[in-house]
Write a structure and sequence with these properties.
The chain contains 29 helices and 8 strands. It has 723 residues and is mainly alpha-helical. The protein starts with 9 loop residues before the first strand and ends in an 8-residue tail after the last helix.
């Protein structure tokens, strides 16, 4: 038994290839058939041990790592450097296995033996890019192992050793689930789908440059933990470079989705900043200015109120932007520093810009004039515009971003923020499906996602919302259940404040589509999810009311109030107060019950108050109340024969959610009842387009009042009546 520790490796740029079957020479050393080869993994790399068996050639011990659940077979052969593989041309620098001659991952590990003789190991891998992390991990172990074997054998102690790692695919494709734990601490894999964004830094190492570029794009994609790993890897590739440390310090800081600075983050940011400052003498002028600007952002010890630091950083970045006005990265970083001062608070409810919003827009537009495909500027421009009265202003930015960085799930997802604001719900759904697939690839490489897991939940959450707006019940429910099932129990317990607002989405979908019996069969959420528990009680009350069980609905209403009382007063959804959102639920539930008690005026009053509360929510996508209350209010008004009131509510909703089929359907019913045949025909056509992918038929904009509208009585429940 040999104890293997990871070693530092350097990797050349990779691209996706698929290797074919590998021919093995008769001289190739193979694992002995009767030798057991097992991995036993623990929480730290120090706990890992590999059992090695010796094949028929004792000079070249072999390691065989078994198949992963994706059926990837790893085989590692070692061979003395004095030998050439059969068929290898003299002078070749590396071996390409037959059938895998496109192998493109070449790693060199330089290790010194006890007598200071330089030993080298060249590792070649042919395989799919999604296995990058697994390959790196196995290489580190193989190289370390070979070094130990060489040092133990005096006859080989001064000879090079070639380690050829062949990644063969037994069946299927896709990465394994746990290899990142085998990497040296802080190591980042190389991702091939990160786009072409490049910022030249002061370094002689091409690998340091590549990892820096990767880290910067991850930072622009809000995957700050992965960005930090990339920056730290770049720093190891070039210990003299300042900018990798600048990048790590930047990403330890606050951002619009996490404005807090926990103690460990503050300490790490300060330490990284000091490393950058220690190397500032080797930096270019713009690099020095960026490091100096970042120095205004942190303090040791950190203050209780860090806003003065954030203001100082924004001022320093403004000076940097004035000095380097042709630098799109500087412009983007400056705009982000301004957005951090007013996160998710750029526009009033009346659509007026707040604070420095206009300056943010101007700076981002300048960045996009310099570099139209800048991933960070495109990302932030969408956020800066989406809550405005003219979200279509960012449509071009959204379209540029759709396929720009295919491995960064959050950037792939971002165009959907504009799609739903301009009524393109199908495009939003398609975009989030692509983002979810990117997340799956990422999760195979990096099983511990940290805070980025919340962004992954966000993509499922968004997909469920857009599918609900499309009328796609099956897809919405699938997205919701996959999201909930993807959260491990231990993570949900540990990070309950983060995940609690998401976990209610299944109840929202079932309620949206009138699946009352299914909703009532949903089990009670655990106590550590108090917001979800309260929402579960609310949804059950609505279901019971819709089924005509008024007494049962009243009992659930009381249970809902008790559950709300158990929610901490300072609990948040994403950015809104949880109690504000639950207050909407309380009024909506009262309206639903009052309707079944034949108290229509009381129902309308309760629902109008719910609409008012919904309108007062701070903007967030998807909205933190996923089924617009106006859909219920208008359906109740239409059912009561108050056609013009219902029509106005539908028009107001379409102003908020353009071209959504629920309100188009209701508006069409109102127009038909009033005899507005020309406009009715136009609305009917719009509804048909909006509902083209729907898998349900509706007779009302809220299925809590199905079949009781005037139009249903006259024309049937399925689609809009024929003109």
């Amino acid at each position: 038994m040999y104890s293997i520790s990871p070693v530092t490796c350097w990797k050349a740029k990779s691209r996706c290839v698929s290797g074919g079957p590998t021919r093995q020479s008769p001289r190739c050393v193979r694992p002995h058939r009767t030798t057991e080869s097992t991995w036993r993994t623990g929480r730290t790399s120090a706990d890992r041990r590999i059992r090695f068996g010796l094949g028929e050639h004792d000079q070249a011990p072999a390691l065989a790592a078994g198949c992963s659940e994706q059926s990837l077979a790893l085989r590692v052969w070692t061979w003395a450097g004095g030998h050439r593989w059969p068929g290898q041309r003299k002078g070749r620098t590396h071996f390409r296995p037959g059938g895998c001659d496109r192998g493109d991952l070449i790693l060199r590990a330089l290790m010194r033996s006890s007598d200071r003789e330089l030993l080298s190991a060249t590792v070649i891998s042919a395989g799919c890019r999604d296995r990058d992390l697994l390959v790196r991990s196995a290489i580190c172990y193989a190289a370390s192992y070979c070094c130990r074997i060489v040092m133990r054998r005096s006859s080989m102690a001064r000879r090079g050793l070639i380690v050829v790692l062949i990644v063969g695919q037994v069946s299927g494709c896709g990465g394994p689930r746990g290899p990142s734990d085998s990497l040296p601490q802080g190591e980042s894999p190389r991702f091939s789908g990160m786009g072409d964004h490049h910022r030249a830094i002061t370094t002689r190492s091409t690998e340091a440059q590549a990892y820096f570029d990767q880290g910067l794009v991850w930072a622009f994609a809000f995957n700050h933990d992965e960005a930090i790993r990339s920056f730290e890897t770049a720093a190891r590739r070039d210990p003299d470079a300042a900018m990798p440390w600048w990048g790590a310090a930047l990403c330890h800081g606050p951002h619009i989705n996490y404005p807090m600075m926990p103690a460990e983050r503050s300490k790490a940011a300060w330490a990284a900043l000091q490393e950058a400052r220690a190397r500032i003498g080797r930096a270019s002028p713009v690099e020095r200015d960026l490091i100096e600007a970042l120095s205004a952002r942190y303090a040791d010890p950190p203050p209780a109120d860090r806003r003065p630091l954030d203001v100082a950083y924004a001022s320093a970045m403004e000076a940097c932007w004035r000095k380097h006005g042709d630098d799109a990265d500087v412009a983007t970083l400056y705009a982000e520093s301004l957005m951090d001062l007013q996160p998710w608070d750029l526009w009033t409810h009346g659509g007026q810009p707040k604070g420095r919003t206009e300056e943010i827009l101007a700076v981002l537009e300048a960045a996009l004039r310099i570099e139209p495909d800048h991933p960070g500027a495109l990302h932030l421009y969408i956020h800066a515009v989406e809550a405005s009265p003219a979200p279509g202003r960012a449509q071009a930015a959204a379209n540029r971003l759709r396929r720009l960085v295919p491995d960064a799930g959050h950037l792939v997802h971002m165009p959907s923020h504009i799609d739903v604001r301009v009524g393109q719900y199908a495009a939003a759904s398609d975009q989030n499906e692509l983002a979810i697939e990117a997340d799956r690839r990422y999760r195979r490489l990096v099983p511990r996602q940290g805070f980025y897991r919340v962004y992954m939940l966000h993509n499922h959450h968004f997909l469920a919302f857009s599918c609900m707006m499309e009328g796609r019940m099956a897809a919405a429910l699938k997205a919701a259940r996959e999201m909930v099932s993807s959260v491990p129990d231990d993570y949900a317990r540990r990070e309950s404040a983060l995940v609690d607002p998401y976990m209610m989405i299944v109840f929202d979908v079932l309620k949206r589509f009138g699946r009352w019996d299914d909703l009532l069969r949903e089990p009670q959420p655990p106590a550590y999810l108090p917001i979800t528990t309260a929402h579960w009680r609310f949804a059950r009350g609505v279901a019971l009311a819709a089924k005509g069980d008024v007494a049962g609905a009243r009992r659930e209403q009381e249970a809902f109030r008790m559950a709300v009382a158990a929610v901490p007063k300072d609990a948040l959804m994403a950015i809104n107060s949880a109690h504000h959102v639950l207050d909407i639920a309380g009024h909506m539930l009262e309206g639903e019950i009052a309707l079944r008690e034949r108290r229509t005026d009381a129902a309308v009053a309760a629902l109008r108050e719910a609409v008012r509360l919904e309108d007062d929510l701070i903007y967030m996508e998807p909205p933190e109340w996923t089924q617009p209350v106006r859909h219920t209010l208008a359906a109740v008004l239409l059912d009561a024969g108050r056609i013009r009131e219902a029509e106005q509510v539908y028009r107001d909703d379409l102003a908020d959610w353009p071209e959504n089929g629920w309100s188009l359907h209701g508006l069409g019913q109102c127009l038909r009842e009033r005899g507005e045949t020309a406009e009715f025909a136009a609305v009917k056509k719009r509804f048909t387009e909006a509902w083209r992918r729907a898998d349900i038929e509706i007779g009302s904009s809220c299925l809590c009042v199905p079949g009781r509208t005037l139009s249903r009585a006259r024309h049937g429940a399925g689609h809009l009546p024929a003109g």
